[in-house]
Amino acid sequence: MQPLTLYNTLSRQKERFEPISAPHVGLYVCGPTVYNYVHLGNVRTFLSFDTLFRYLTHIGYKVRYVRNLTDVGHLVGDSDEGEDKIGRMAKLEKLEPMEIVQRYTLDFHNVMATFNALPPSIEPTATGHMIEQIEAVKELIDKGLAYESNGSVYFDIEQYNREGGQYGKLSGRILDDLLNETRELDGQSEKRNPLDFAIWKNASPEHLMRWKSPWGMGFPGWHLECTCMSTKYLGTQFDIHGGGMDLKFPHHECEIAQGHGLNNHDPVRYWMHSNMLTVNGQKMSKSLGNSFLPSELFAGTHPLLDQAYSPMTVRFFMLQSHYRSTLDFSNDALKAAQKGYRRLVNGLRLLKSMTFEAEEGAVVEPKHGEEVARDNQALYDALNDDLNTAVAIGHLFSLLKKINQLDTKQVSMEQFGEAAFAQLQTTFVQFFEEVLGLKEETSRDQTAMVGGMLDLYREYKTQRLYDKVDQVRSYFKSQGLVIRDMKHRIDWAYEE
């Protein structure tokens, strides 16, 4: 089996994954700023790292997965000036900021559960780690890497670089070019350098969220929060830091600078970034009217959607593309994903209902063991190649062909062999459910109803009541199901 390799944004190449303290792995992912409903771009990022978490666990690592909630300090426009996103929403809705935080945290958790994402090991909040952040600011000032100005504290990028730091190495941006791009903004006069970023901000009188500090009433900088929370729970250097591509600069660049400044070494071994979503080839954005919420997808209520799409269809759709590639939403692509997902779920149902039973007196001549072993190996090789879920799904479809051949008796159990059948069952179920996080979308009530209707179908068919047979078929079709009327049995499946 080839070793696990991950694309490291820092080195710009795939690297063999070697944890600092195997089998333990430290994984940190930047969570949402909980001021509004979670959008699909965020969902893609979190599902990508949910899959990584699942796979690392599957192959035997003990993963501490930390994903924070930003509940203060993230300013509108991702800048050092202006309103806090949560404070702004609180003013608009005439609520306490923590009411906003609670509402959208619950929404985020509900959406993640709907997509069958596992909860992280630890989910810290910025407001819950104010002491750690104030102490980090003090330490950076003491080291000469930060300075106070008018009640705010800024990280000194030029001093950091003079001491061996390389600000810009993650994003590949050159300091001189960044300076040329930077416009003179309000409040920048209090900085020594326009690129210096806030690690503590002075709170204006109208600012809702504020804490006492040695520099006056204020609040922490957005970048510092992640540095303090990741360090507290994963150590001063940990294995993997994940997030969306949009966070690479300046957020993650600043995290590297702060972490190195505090501890004299880089904070992270492997930086991983998921790519953006587009809609019909255009960037997803509210201003273009092509941004939709998960709830709109599930209900099919957005004007750009032809129909509703289930959570597992959307998860499957996202997994069909490599996490580092741009993913384009379109009705055609989602419908194709729905068909593919249902084909695999039908195979899952069949496989779970099968047991190895050789016919009495039949000679067992296993011919398919090597093929199953090869597909099993190919699944691991695909995910070991920088978590290539798209290729892995292709190999699941190869295994699906064998499931269908067994079901239709094109291949007998004797030709398959007990060992190959056991491996097929284990591999298909584990990768579909445990690693890719997919599941059959059905309730106990629905299963009972479908089973009852199928019994009626059998009875009507026996009695040759064909008008009622057609009525049952129509009911199944209305539910997105089909009746499989075969020689050796009658069953149902999801309509593909």
Automatic annotation (TrEMBL):
What positions does the domain Cysteinyl-tRNA synthetase class Ia DALR occupy?
378-450
> What's the protein here called?
Cysteine--tRNA ligase
Q: Please provide one cellular component term from the Gene Ontology annotations of this protein.
A: cytosol
For this chain's record, the cofactor binding note is: Binds 1 zinc ion per subunit.
Q: Identify the residues that bind ATP.
A: 286
**In chain numbering, where does the motif 'KMSKS' region fall?**
283-287
Q: Tell me which cofactor or cofactors this protein depends on.
A: Zn(2+)
The UniProt record gives the binding positions of Zn(2+) as 30, 226, 251, 255
Q: Which organism is it from?
A: Fibrella aquatilis
Question: A single Gene Ontology molecular function, please?
Answer: zinc ion binding
Sequence motif: 'HIGH' region, positions? 32-42
Any Gene Ontology biological process: cysteinyl-tRNA aminoacylation
State which gene encodes it: cysS
User: What are the protein's UniProt keywords?
Assistant: Aminoacyl-tRNA synthetase, ATP-binding, Cytoplasm, Ligase, Metal-binding, Nucleotide-binding, Protein biosynthesis, Zinc
